[in-house]
Structure formats: C-alpha cells, structure tokens
C-alpha cells in the first residue's frame, strides 16, 4: 500500500487533549487534500496515515502537507505486512526494490517500533535490513549524514518504510487554540502576525479598515490577496472590510492633529472588538512591533489598547523589521505587502504625530465625539468576504 505517513509533535499533543488535537489534524488533512484524489485518512498509533493510489502525484500533496500546522514531519511511504515470527524477508525485498533506482553511496536504516511485543528490537531490524541492502546494492552504511535515510515504522500488523522525510511547519493544528480577530493592513507586519497566531492553533478572522471613499481600492485589494494567501493555512477565512475614511474625517475635524493616529487606532480597536465578539474570538491581534513607528512607542501602545476590553495580542512585539520581513518572504506574503497602495493610515496623517500620548488627554478629546455612533457607522457599512482553500470549484475561473 502506498501512503503518506504524517507525524505530529508528540510533546505538544500529550495528555488529555491528544485525541482532540489528533481529530482536528485528521479533519484538516482530509479537507486540505480533498481535491487531490487521496483515499482514507486514518489515525494510527502516534501518526496519521493518508492512503494514496499508485498513480496519485506526490508533489502537490507534499506542497500542501508542508503548510499544515501541527505536522512535525511526513513522508511518502509503503507498507508491508509484518509476520509475527520476526521474518523480514518481504520487507528486505520491498526496500531493495524501492532503492534500486536511486542514486546514493551511503545509507542508514532508522527503525521505530510502536508495538514492543514484536520479537526483534528496532536495532535488530536496522541491522538486518542494513546488511541485506549492503549485499544487494554494494553501498555502505553511514550513520552520520548518509545520502539516504531509510525510515521504518513497525506497527502491529504492518510496517511502513520510506526513503525521504519532509519537514512540516510544526506548531499546533488550527482551531485547537480558539479564535482570534486580526487587524490586517496591507503592510508587511500584520499578515505575519496572523500567521504566527494560526501556527499556535488560532483560527483567525480578519478586519481591515480602508480609506474609501477618499482613496482607491488598492489597500483593500492587497488585503483580499493576503487573506487568500493566509487561507492556505486555515482553509476558510472571513474578512470584514470597514470603510474608515469618513470616521477619520470626523477625527481630523474634532481633534488636535498630533493625536490623530492614536485616535484612529483606538477607534479601529473598538469597531474590531464588536466584530471579534460576534465571531466569538477570545482576543484581537495586531502587527505592532515595539518602537517601529510613532504609534508603537510604549506609551502609545498602552493608550491604544485601553480602548478595548478583549485581550490584545501583538505577536511581533519583540521582532525587528528584518526578522519580520524574512518571515513574510518565507510564508509568501511579502511580494503582495510591498505593492504600492493607498492605505487609510496615510490619509490625513499629521506631520508630527504625538509619540507619548497621555490617556487622560486622549479621553478628554474623545469626550467631544459620539464614539458609539462612530462604531455603529463603521459596523453598518462593513462588508464581509469569505475565502476557502482549496478554492471551491464554482469560484475557479
Ligand atoms: P503593518 O505592516 O501591519 O501595516 P505597520 O508597521 O505599518 O504594520 P502601523 O501602520 O502602525 O504599523 O499599524 C500597526 C498595526 O495596526 C498593524 O500591524 C495592524 O494590525 C493594525 N492596522 C493598521 N492599519 C490598519 C488598517 N487599515 N486596517 C486594519 N488594521 C490596521
Ligand atoms: Mg501599516
């Protein structure tokens, strides 16, 4: 039988939560591979098996599996039945055939035995298969950095062997850590912040504030593209698009210029919080990084988050721009993020924004506004967009 064997991080999945985590992962795997012609997805002891037909192409499956959080590593494997008397002849023959066409000079065999009742230890199996392969191919065993690492996993009735192991992204299956709402701009940082929360198991809803009717659709189009990209990791996303230009105009008219940015941010959080509660999120997420721009000084970060009651998570707070940029490149959002746009944040930006806002002063200024009405105004005009991965058939061109 041809299959993919998927391993998750043992440590993270220990204890009472394990069946729950494993079920989440199994469901995610079924969904993400659903259009690639796979067979069953089954939880075996400590690993997950995805049955493949002999002609199911491996490359697309490999590409998808490398984006499933919770996967530590995986491999394309084949199974052989195990005879309980310790006879390894059929395994020797099968592995001999599997390596016949491969270019290598050195190899090692690494066996894991899930069922300790089997009469041979894993080292016995390493040796037996190693000797047989040496005799068959004339190649040498090398334990450190071999050209080929043959993995064998012995379960009760069958064993799986594979010749190459692929790295997964690690992390926790999306959904096991509840749901969060990410404030996403078209910039480099917030998509990375969302990615990091998804990797810790959070299903993520997105909220974007755009400058319409005062600016074009550019930031909005970028955000749609970014959310589509990030949906590869969680398979379904909801994006709320909020017109913010009119609200900004009111702030501009009613507040001293240096306070605008802090007031915009507080207003964004209030509106996002309403949506977050509706979506049953336990926290909100932003891409703030300490000291990166005027709105991200310690004082301003504190004043901004005071506007919301839900916890505000800032997964990038201790990262610098280079680290964030590298991560954006790795996850594939960077190219979209750097496209020029007209973000609402660049609308009505004061020449000298305040870097140390005082909460008392900010609250006094806000007294002049009908905050409830402004929140309502934002929510009323909110548009909802939904994204799926793999894209649904009807939405394909
Ligand atoms: P980014 O690269 O994510 O835009 P930034 O370094 O440009 O971040 P700011 O513009 O100060 O920083 O924004 C800080 C955070 O506030 C963003 O990471 C994002 O979470 C949120 N934010 C800013 N603008 C918007 C927006 N238009 N819509 C939704 N969230 C926003
Ligand atoms: Mg920005």
Structural description of this entry:
By secondary structure, the chain is of the alpha/beta class. Helices cover 38% and strands 21% of the residues. The protein has 13 helices and 15 strands. Strands 1, 2, 3, 4, 5, 6, 7, 8 and 9 form a nine-stranded mixed beta sheet that branches. The protein has a six-stranded mixed beta sheet with strand order 14-13-10-11-12-15, with helices on both faces. Strand 13, helix 9 and strand 14 form a beta-alpha-beta unit. Helix 3 packs across helix 4 (122-137), helix 5 runs parallel beside helix 6 (218-234) and helix 5 packs across helix 10. It starts with a strand and ends in a 9-residue tail after the last strand. The structure holds adenosine-5'-triphosphate (ATP) and magnesium ion. Magnesium ion binds next to loops.
Order of H and E elements: EHEEHEHEHEEEEEHEHEHHEHEHHHHE
Count, helices: 13
Rg value: 27 Å
Uncertain segments of ≥5 residues (pLDDT<50)?
Answer: none
Q: List the ions, cofactors and other small molecules found in this model.
A: adenosine-5'-triphosphate, magnesium ion
In whole angstroms, the N-to-C terminal distance is: 36 Å
Sheet with most strands: 9 strands, mixed
What shape does the CA trace take?
elongated
What portion of the residues fall into strands of 2 or more residues? 15-25%
Structural class designation = alpha/beta
How many β strands by DSSP? 15
Instruction: Give the oligomer, counting copies of the same chain as homo and different chains as hetero.
Output: single chain
Overall pLDDT, averaged? 92
Task: Report helical residue fraction.
Answer: 25-40%
């Amino acid at each position: 039988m041809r299959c993919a064997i998927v391993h998750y991080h043992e440590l993270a999945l220990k204890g009472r939560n394990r069946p729950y985590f494993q079920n989440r992962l199994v469901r995610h795997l079924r969904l993400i591979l659903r259009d690639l012609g796979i067979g069953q997805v089954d939880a075996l002891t400590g690993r997950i098996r995805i049955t493949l037909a002999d002609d199911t192409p491996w490359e697309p499956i490999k590409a998808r599996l490398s984006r499933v959080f919770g996967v530590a590593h995986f491999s394309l494997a084949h199974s052989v039945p195990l005879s309980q008397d310790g006879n390894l002849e059929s395994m020797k023959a099968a592995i001999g055939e599997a390596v016949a066409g491969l270019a290598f000079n050195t190899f090692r065999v690494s066996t894991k035995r899930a069922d300790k009742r089997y009469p041979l230890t894993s080292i016995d199996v390493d040796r037996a298969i190693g000797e047989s392969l040496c005799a068959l191919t004339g190649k040498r065993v090398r334990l450190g950095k071999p050209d080929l690492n043959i993995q064998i996993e012995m379960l009760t009735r069958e064993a799986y062997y594979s010749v190459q192991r692929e790295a997964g992204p690690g992390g926790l299956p999306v959904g096991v850590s509840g749901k969060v709402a990410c404030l996403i701009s078209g910039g480099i940082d917030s998509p990375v912040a969302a990615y990091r929360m998804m990797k810790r198991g959070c299903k993520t809803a997105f909220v974007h504030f755009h400058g319409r009717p005062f600016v074009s659709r550019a930031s909005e189009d970028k955000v749609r593209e970014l959310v589509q990209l990030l949906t590869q990791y969680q398979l379904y996303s909801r994006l709320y698009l909020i017109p913010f230009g009119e609200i900004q105009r009111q702030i501009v008219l009613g507040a001293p210029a240096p306070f605008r940015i802090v007031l915009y941010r507080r207003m964004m959080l209030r509106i996002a919080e309403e949506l977050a509660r509706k979506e049953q999120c336990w926290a909100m997420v932003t891409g703030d990084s300490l000291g990166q721009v005027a709105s991200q000084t310690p004082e301003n970060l504190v004043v901004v988050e005071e506007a919301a009651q839900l916890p505000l998570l800032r997964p990038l707070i201790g990262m610098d721009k280079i680290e964030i940029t590298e991560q954006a490149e790795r996850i594939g959002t960077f190219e979209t993020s750097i496209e020029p746009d007209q973000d609402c944040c660049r609308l009505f930006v004061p020449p000298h924004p305040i870097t140390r806002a005082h909460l008392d002063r900010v609250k006094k200024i806000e007294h002049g506004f009908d905050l409830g009405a402004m929140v309502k105004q934002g929510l009323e005009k909110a548009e909802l967009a939904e994204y799926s991965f793999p894209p649904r058939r009807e939405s394909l061109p």
